[in-house]
Structure formats: C-alpha cells, structure tokens
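JOB MANIFEST
job_type = single_chain_structure
chain_count = 1
residues = 605
[input]
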Amino acid sequence: EDEINATFARDQRESALKSFKKDPGVRKRCENFGISSHLFNMWSKAYADDAEAEKIERLKAENLVNVLVRSGREGFQYFIINQFFAYLSEKAPEVVKNIAYLRRITDLRYPHEWMVNTRNMQRRIIMHVGPTNSGKTYHALQRLQNSQNGIYCSPLRLLAYEVYSRMNKAGISCTLVTGEDRRGADYSDEAVKPAGYSIDGEPYAAIRSCTIEMASMDKRDVAVVDEIQMIADRQRGWAWTNALLGLQASEIHLCGEVSAVPIVKKICAALDEDVEVREYSRLGQLHTSKASLENDWSRIRPGDCVVAFSRNEIFGIKNTIEETTGLRCAVIYGGLPPEARVEQAQLFNDPKSGYDVLVASDAVGMGINLSIRRIVFTTLSKFDGGSLSRISVSQTRQIGGRAGRFGSGADAGEVTTMNPQDLKPLGESMNKQPPMIKAAGIIPMSDAIETFSHQFPDVPFSELWPMFRDIATVDDDYYLCSFSGQEQIAKCIEHLPLKVRDRYQLLYAPINTRDEIVAKCLVKYATYVANNTECHIGSVVKLPVKPPASRAHLQVFEQWHRSITLFIWLSFHYPEIFANIEEATELKVRCEKAIAEGLASIKGR
C-alpha cells in the first residue's frame, strides 16, 4: 500500500485504459447496451484521451490512489469500465438507450436507505479494537451473555459453533445458524433455560450464533459482529456492511482491527449514530526472532506452527518435518471440512496426542484456539489467482499474532521465517499498523438485479451481472464486491430454465467452480430447482467406498464433502426440493471420518 501514489496510479490508469479498449468482453457488453463497434471506438478513444489529459475528475491520478488501495488491480479495471458509462451519460446519453433510467435503477449510492426499519431506531455502536489475542471479542461476548435477546455474527462457521457451545455450556440458551447447519439450544442440559416461550408454547433461546451471511435483522437487545475489518474483503465485505447498516439491535459491538475505525465512524456519521471506541493491548508478549531457521528443518520444535500457502506444500512440509525430526504433524488448511480442522487442532493442542507440530495455511489466522508457541513462515508470498504477491500487513500480523496465545502456556509468542531473506520484511510488517480502510463492500439487492434483467430479456444472465456492475453508481465510501465467483456460477447454470430469483439465489452458493466435482453437483442440484422436483442426495453424490490413500484422493473426498454441504445449504433455501437432510447428514459424517483416516495415514507424496 505504501507504494501506491499518484505516479503509480497514472501508470495503472494508462494500462487499464489500453486493456479496456481491447477487451472483447467489454465490447460484447457494450453491444448488449446497444453501442455499435463504430461508436465504441469513437467514444472509448475520447474517454481515454480526456482521462489521460486529467479532464475527468474521478480519473485524476491523485483521486485514483484510494481506488487502487480499496479495490486492487481487478477492482480498478472494473472502475475504469464503470466510469466509461458515467462519461457517456454526461457526454453522449443518446449512445445508450434509456441510460438515465438504467443508471437510476442501478444507483447504489445510498445503501443505508435499503434498511428502512433499522433507520427508525437509535443504536449504540461500540467498537472493540486491538491486535490478535487482546481480549477484544471476549469483552464483547461478556456483554452478549447478559442479554436475553442477542446475536453473534461470525466470519467462520467454526467460530459460530465455538460461541454456540460456550454459551450453552454456561447455561445460556443459544441456537446455531450457518449456511450448512441449524441447531437448537441444548435443553437436554437442565442448566440451559429458554429465554421465553412463543404463543404456541415453543421455547426460544436468548442468543443466536451465526455466520455473518446468515445474520437475521430481527429486533435484538445486543449484537456482536466479529472481525469488522472484513468489511473491506473484496468477496465477502458486503455481509459486514449489511450487518453494520441493518442489524436492529439497541447495542452493537464491533470487534476487530483499529483499521476499521475510520470507515465505521464515517458510515455511522451518515446514519446520525455515534461510535464509542475501546482499544485493547495484546495479552502476553510477542516478538520477531533475530534469526531465521536458515531453511534447516531440523530446527523445528514442539509447539511450532509452520505456515505455507499451498495445499501441496503443506503435505510436503509435513512429510519433511516428520522424517527429519521425528515430530508428528497435524495439518490445517482452507480446503479441509471445519470438523476436520477442529479435530486436527485438538490433536495439536493435546500434549498427550503425540502430535507436536502444526503445518497450516493462512486458515489459522482466525478461528480455532491453538496452543502455538512459535509461528514459522515458509514464505511471505501467496498466489492470488493471477500471480504471487506479498501477503498484507493485516494478514501477517493476524497469523503471526496466533503465537503465544493468552492461556496457551507459552511465556511469550515468537514469529520467524524459514528463509533468511524473509526475516526483515516480516519484522517490518509485524511492527506496522494495517492501512486504514477506505471503503465498505456492498452488493445489489435481488430486486435491483431482477428489475435490471427485465430491460435485457435476450441477454444471458451470466452477462447481465457484469453489465450491472459496468453501469452502477457507487458512493466513494463503498465499493461493489467482486462478482468473479458469481459470474462463474452463472455460466455453469446458464443453460437451465431457472427463474431470475433462483439464479440470483444460486449465485451465492458456497462453492468454488474450480472444484470440478462440486461444480458438476451444482448443475445437477440446479436442474432439480429448475424442474421443481425432489432431489435425493444419493442420486448426485457418489462417495468412494475406501478412505483416501493419497493426497489426490483426499482432495476428491474434500470436494465430495463440499458437495454434501452444498446440498444442506440448498435445503434451507429449497426445503421441499432438498428434503432428505438425515441422509445428507449421515453421508457427511461418513465423508468426514474418511478424511480423518486419510489425514492420519497420508504422507507428503
């Protein structure tokens, strides 16, 4: 972020304008808007010339710095395309038919106006900010425990489950709601009492613990939103923005990094709501080592967490450590089912389990409590889908801060690297504060997409999505979250006769279309939605009989597990179509047991 200045922004603008004029996807979408090839050539040249001459206010180099910081290169390219339509709207509105109306129905400048009921109440906003392991979430949860009608909004299913378990064990009735799971309060424990009873005599719980995408906007006394800095996440930031704008709670506690304070204050000022900020310091010491491990695996010791950013590397490192040191390794990475991650964490945390070292991806940055004494980075670069890039200050500090967690038994946490060349940049990142967040993520409401789609009845839905992005108007305090994942899903199901609302619902299915098995299952599931017929999971999911015996085979099981959880996610949105939850749950448990067996036996080959 430090390297982004006006000169850099000018260079990026020049590059983005060249790409814009040559991009066949842009030309195709312009054709859908009724812009001929001749008119596109003429007006794209005029637009580029005026931008380079600093005649367009929002495209002046100094104004583009913030766009680059908040959006990255992908978002910046989208911004350049979007501003072309703003330029046409001003200079040549006749080029795009009904452009004034199209820009009106895609006007996203006032997202707070979408939450009418919330605007009719006065809320107290309290921010708990500080580094990893500072007790900020603990203090917010203490307030939640005393509520008779509260909600906890988590970035991860694991964290939602942890709070659900903690509350019920404390005798506080709490339900769990995630995309793949629904659980009632544990009334089998006599200490857990309902907060009250409905008119029908059904008990209701005091607290709901949920993943943030599943947050309900019912009236509450207290709400806790964890990891508020994820409001800037380019894929999921919209969920934190929705929570901030829409939660109907008298008292809202936002936990996270200090980097989120300015944007939260700015948004809340527009809502006429005050923000109280409580800052916390780290509990326990943390320091960066004076020396790396010099690429010597024999220097790995019990209590270490070795961090790598590639699934294949994780298993290779596990094998190397076990062969070199005799220490046994647990593994945690994003592709593992949450249940498997919890099991691996328990093995690492238990001093009697025989597992001494953890090899993990950045999935350890938040979520499970881990008794890590030292974090060892094998690299500070991660593949971002296009190229290798340095992980951010925020990511580095969050992962590094997991060492020496309060209550873990370690006197102090330590952070180091395998490679000597990474040690200095690691130290610099650990001593820096993450840059202040400039904007919050949003997505359009389904009604806006549906209205927009009616203007282009002959255009495939997968093309409507980026067209909406091209012409939408967004305030500088917000940005449109990345549509890339949704575009791929839209293409997968394009051939099916689905209603617009069903297409929109399926766009947010919790999958990655690069997972071939999962993508095929999505298409099969969507076919049942299109035909409005009941789907039995056994007709779609074909789980192998034998447990995985290799890394490749393990990956197949991980994809089948995601296909099963996709069925369960769909069951909450289409309960009559995806009805047999018991069968799906049994299959899920079988799959998790097979994955656990594979993790215990597979070597790094």
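[summary]
The mean pLDDT is 92.
The longest strand covers residues 248-256.
exit_status = 0
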